[in-house]
Amino acid sequence: MTCPTRTACPYCGVGCGVLATPDGKGGATVAGDPDHPANFGRLCSKGSALGETLALDDRLLFPQIAGRRASWDEAIALTAATFREAIDAHGPDSVAFYVSGQLLTEDYYVANKLMKGFIGSGNIDTNSRLCMASAVAGHRRAFGTDTVPTCYEDLEQADLVVLTGSNLAWCHPVLYQRIAAAKAARPGMKVVTIDPRRTATSDLADLHLGVAPGSDAALFNFLLHRIQSQGAIDAAYVLAHVDGLPAAMAEARRWPVERAAEVTGLAPRDLEAFAALWIRREKGVTLWSQGLNQSSSGADKANAIINCHLATGRIGRPGMGPFSITGQPNAMGGREVGGLANMLAAHLDLENPAHRAAVQGFWGSPAMAERPGLKAVDLFEACAEGRIKALWIMSTNPAVSMPEADRVRDAIRATPFVAVSEVVRGTDTGDLADVLLPAAAWGEKTGTVTNSERRITRQRAFLPAPGEALADWDQLARVGRAMGFEGFDFASPAEVFREHAALSAMAGRMGRDFDLSGLEGISDADYDALAPVQWPVTEAGSRARFFADGKFHTETGRARMLPVAPRAPESRLSAAFPLRLNTGRVRDHWHTMTRTAKTPRLSRHIAEPFAEIHPADADAAGISPADLVHVIAPEGRVTVRALVTDRTPRGAIFVPMHWTSQWASAGRVDAAVRANVDPVSGQPELKGAAARIERA
Ligand code: SF4
């Protein structure tokens, strides 16, 4: 009998461990890994159906150039030559990579090294920009580094768990199950949910706060105000470790309960109940996710939460802290290697000359990026304006998932040269490629991912890659070599990881938080056997939490509280577009459904795209349950099924993000979302468009 392979689920940022057992016929059975500290054997519906998604019928098997089969040598040579010509003629900022939180850390590392250290541009951004860039910005402003201070156990040890902007029950189900189990075992534990919608997650809540869309910062400013007025500030902690309290308080005091009630739409008694719960329970975690991050003021919302934890010293100790949960399986790994346009590798700062020089020395780089590159929305805008001459998209589908998706599709089409690395044929983005590069998929590739609690887990291959599919790091290294660069002679993902660990060790010696010096020089055998471990990994061991010691990574070594002036969503409602359009996930589908649509079991939960609409709004528009409706915005429209429900508040609609033109010809909701971005984080406001709804 074949032994199971220990690997990690490829879907969400919980990062569950999986045991995969090949069946000898190209498939595999999948079970939860009882020894993995993220899930202890649990899997959600998506994870448990992984074995049903391994069919090869739609796989991209060979490189293609202009639609005809090509050899790898031809495809690599053409990609390298075209990038080289664009750089020579127009400079390094005329080319770009758009990558993905689905990539493994080793893929991400090579992509970032090639663009920032050898091409010499910051133009590498990732679909993680759409996921958690606001949390990254919030962390860096408050802590000096992008450090998640908490771990999953904190959610079980807390006396209060606040879930804000997070439908954890559907989007991070195993973490939700862990909280639900902890609450069942310890009924004194309280859960608060903060979300304009009543979701499956709200069903667990002792208190559900149905805030007005986008008003979270007002709520946390009110909380900070109450923390002070109730005498709950930890003066000793603040005095020793935190700057910025007076300025943050000056703004928070502008949010008495009456004003907070007006802006959030909550009853004063509910606001006071929330503040009382938060203040009286020292062990508390405030968890947030895309509901906060996908906002034109997402970074401020993150800092409004972090302010409350810093003011009370409730950070870095068991059962307490601010906790951002990533959407994708390896958004965190991308952050570690500098996969965002404004970051350098190993949590070093791209804008810091000493950091740039250190990385340049480490890599032996000929041309180091000297400034941040284009963030996702700006990157595709640059394509539309003709400033990007060569673009490489890896493992993501921006023609569907970017806001103003029709405009992004046109921008990709207008770019003179587009390479797309993909697992499957026929995606909206892949159909626009000049060069299509077949990529190895989950189960076929090997490397590491990092989950939301900083835990690094090995993804291991248990099936051969079909046709001529190659791992993404290998594709990148081949192009790097073909462009004439040294430093891309990697023979295996273990070699890439060793370099990544060595670079992080240098960053650790420079006082940065991301430090894998304990894994420096790791052998192939030890890399293969690497057990799940939270970073940092140093001689002193691993670390579950940060900041209980009050040591932060700012220039002063002190944390920063920020004054937060709440802002409404950028798109204003009007008579023509009176509804707030919210987008998000459903329980059983993932991203643009390239994997989850392969099994009918996962489509049984929700089979088609829909628009949740409140009964009063449906009445006003003459819409009956199950009608086909147009959701119309200035930027575009989608046609979906009406789901009339009071779980969505009056004045708002919710449409899932998954359906593409492969599955529903009029279901790409992001075509109807304006590309407003947070000026700090560059994250698009995917939850705050203005729209109207009409019967089709
Ligand atoms: Fe996979 Fe996330 Fe489900 Fe865990 S919770 S099995 S990581 S989708």
UniProtKB/TrEMBL annotation:
Top-rank lineage group of the source organism: Bacteria
Keywords for this protein: 4Fe-4S, Iron, Iron-sulfur, Metal-binding, Molybdenum, Nitrate assimilation, Oxidoreductase
4Fe-4S Mo/W bis-MGD-type domain mapped to chain residues: 2-58
Record has Ribosomal protein as a keyword: no
Cofactor: [4Fe-4S] cluster; Mo-bis(molybdopterin guanine dinucleotide)
Cellular component, GO annotation: membrane; oxidoreductase complex
Gene Ontology biological process terms in this record: cellular respiration; nitrate assimilation
Record GO terms (molecular function): 4 iron, 4 sulfur cluster binding; metal ion binding; molybdopterin cofactor binding; oxidoreductase activity
Family statement: Belongs to the prokaryotic molybdopterin-containing oxidoreductase family. NasA/NapA/NarB subfamily.
Protein name: Assimilatory nitrate reductase (NADH) alpha subunit apoprotein
Organism classification: Bacteria, Pseudomonadati, Pseudomonadota, Alphaproteobacteria, Rhodobacterales
